[in-house]
Design goal:
Layout: E1 2-6, H1 11-22, E2 26-31, H2 38-44, E3 48-51, E4 64-67, H3 76-83, E5 88-90, H4 91-98, E6 104-109, H5 114-127, E7 133-135, E8 147-148, E9 154-158, E10 163-165, E11 168-171, E12 180-183, H6 197-208, E13 216-220, H7 224-231, E14 238-241, E15 245-248, E16 256-261, E17 264-270, H8 276-291, H9 296-303, E18 314-319, E19 322-327, H10 332-346, E20 351-355, H11 360-363, H12 371-374, E21 380-384, H13 394-399, E22 403-407, H14 410-420, E23 426-430, H15 438-453
Parallel strand pairs: 1-2, 1-4, 2-3, 4-5, 6-9, 6-12, 7-9, 12-13, 13-14, 19-23, 20-21, 20-23, 21-22
Antiparallel strand pairs: 7-8, 10-11, 15-16, 16-17, 18-19
Helix pairs in contact: 5-8, 5-9, 6-7, 8-9, 14-15
Keywords: ATP-binding, Cell cycle, Cell division, Cell shape, Cell wall biogenesis/degradation, Ligase, Magnesium, Nucleotide-binding, Peptidoglycan synthesis
Domain Mur ligase N-terminal catalytic: 2-96
GO molecular function, one term: ATP binding
């Protein structure tokens, strides 16, 4: 069968393409931004890519078109598909019908930590010899791919609450029908498609209602927003982190901690990750793996060899004693988690936080009242203001308890960071996009300064 995927270069749709190719299908696709690393990964699989959405890409008419949720009515390719009455579907629906319907699905949902937790869970199952399939919205560094079919009944999926397609406004995750469901946390996000928190809770409850009686639901005991989701109806056994699952004897940076289940020590994790949020992610992954039959001591051993996902506190360079990090954080809670985790590691070392508030929710100003408080553990904050914001960021500077500076020009932003940085500093760049290649630009400028000093 010939699948043509519109919006193929996103992490989710790229994963769909890889799995479809592994199943033996002919796969082609297009996107408005066809560039590495996803384009290189897809081309290495023998997938023909088209730049843009003109109708020439349909010269060889596909058997079905899989349409990504970034595309809407008015798009030239979408209109062609509808006018020609070509068979089409969403990515989540295709995945259900062709992969998930016969699998033990372990779904990881929540506002924060989905990518890290699903990567941990997939690695635990792999370490235990179960050879799971998975589809993860990032690059798990214990594997060389972001998605694969797998060789066992188990399939780990990052379960996103964002909508499925222009013709299916339900959350992606309602298509996944998990037997093991992780709900990491829940806050208001995605203001471009949800009107309020109760809107998101309703979608989470739709997901919850699909988990069978012989399944398992995992959530933090302290998350009142998720408890309200449970109160809307749950017919599945539930376990809680902070209750059934706990941590003890954690060191300050959370690189070592003991895992407890119902009062019994399961083992001690030693890893390179930092931050309480990653400890919570680890508990969820261990608990979910246990439900699929992996003993907790084996899961603990696996996590001691876990390498974090790319763009999660990833060290991009160390130049002249200055460490440059890349992180995906783009919500106030995630920003605070990330900075606090780094603070626990570096102690009194200076943290220069660099933020691009580019998510749709940020651009709409939904988090403008909590954003300044999220970076309070940093020493200096550099904010790049996107051109299409619907609100003024000037008030953030007066709300901040640390020095914060606002820039609209990338050149001036980099110049300011470089002039302020000194050996021993930690530059933490946070964005859910490429941020104009800022990591490479900063590394290049830092290297030039170091060379001139020598």
């Amino acid at each position: 069968m010939h699948l043509h995927i519109l919006g193929i270069c996103g992490t989710f749709m790229g994963g769909i393409a890889a799995i479809a190719k592994e199943l033996g299908h002919e796969v082609t696709g297009s996107d408005s931004n066809v560039y590495p690393p996803m384009s290189s990964q897809l081309e290495s699989l023998g997938i023909e890519l088209f730049e843009g959405y003109d109708t020439k890409q349909f010269k060889n008419e596909p058997d079905i078109v899989v349409i990504g949720n970034a595309l809407s009515r008015g798009n030239e390719a979408v209109e062609f598909v509808l006018d020609r009455n070509l068979p089409y579907t969403s990515g989540p629906q295709w995945l259900l019908e062709n992969v998930l319907k016969d699998r033990w699905v372990l779904a990881v949902s929540g506002t924060h930590g989905k990518t890290s937790t699903s990567s941990m869970l997939a690695w635990i199952l792999e370490y235990a010899g179960l050879k799971p399939g998975f589809l993860i919205g990032g690059i798990p560094q214990n594997f060389d791919v972001s998605a694969r079919l797998g060789e066992s009944p188990f399939f780990v999926i990052e379960a996103d609450e964002y909508d499925s397609a222009f013709f299916d406004k339900r959350s992606k995750f309602v298509h996944y029908r998990p037997r093991t469901l992780v709900m990491n946390n829940l806050e208001f996000d995605h203001a471009d498609i949800f009107t309020d928190l109760s809107d998101i809770q309703r979608q989470f409850n739709h997901l919850l209602r699909m988990v069978p009686n012989n399944g398992l639901v995992l959530l933090p005991k302290s998350d009142n927003n998720l408890r309200k989701v449970l109160d809307m109806g749950c017919w599945t056994p539930v376990q809680f982190t902070g209750g059934d699952w706990q941590v003890q004897n954690s060191n300050p940076e959370c690189s070592e901690f003991e895992v407890m289940f119902k009062g019994q020590v399961q083992g001690k994790v030693h890893w390179e990750l930092m931050g309480e949020h990653n400890v919570n992610n680890a508990l969820m992954a261990i608990a979910a793996a246990k439900h699929s039959g992996v003993k907790s001591d084996l899961a603990v051993a696996a996590l001691s060899q876990f390498v974090n996902v790319k763009r999660r506190m990833e060290v991009k360079a160390i130049v002249n004693g200055i460490t440059l990090y890349d992180d995906f954080a783009h919500h106030p809670t995630a920003i605070a988690f990330t900075i606090d985790g780094l603070r626990a590691k570096v102690g009194n070392g200076r943290i220069l936080a660099v933020l691009e508030p580019r998510s749709n929710t940020m651009k709409m100003g939904v988090h403008k009242d909590t954003l300044a408080a999220s970076w309070s553990s940093a020493d200096q904050v550099f904010i790049f203001e996107p051109s299409n914001l619907t609100w003024s960021m000037d008030d953030l500077l007066s709300q901040s308890n640390v020095i914060a500076m606002l820039y609209k020009d990338m050149h001036m932003l980099i110049k300011s960071i470089i002039s302020y940085a000194k050996p021993g500093d930690h530059i933490l760049v946070m964005s859910n996009g490429s941020f104009g290649g800022i990591h490479e630009l900063l590394t290049e400028q830092l290297a030039k300064i170091a060379l001139n000093k020598n």
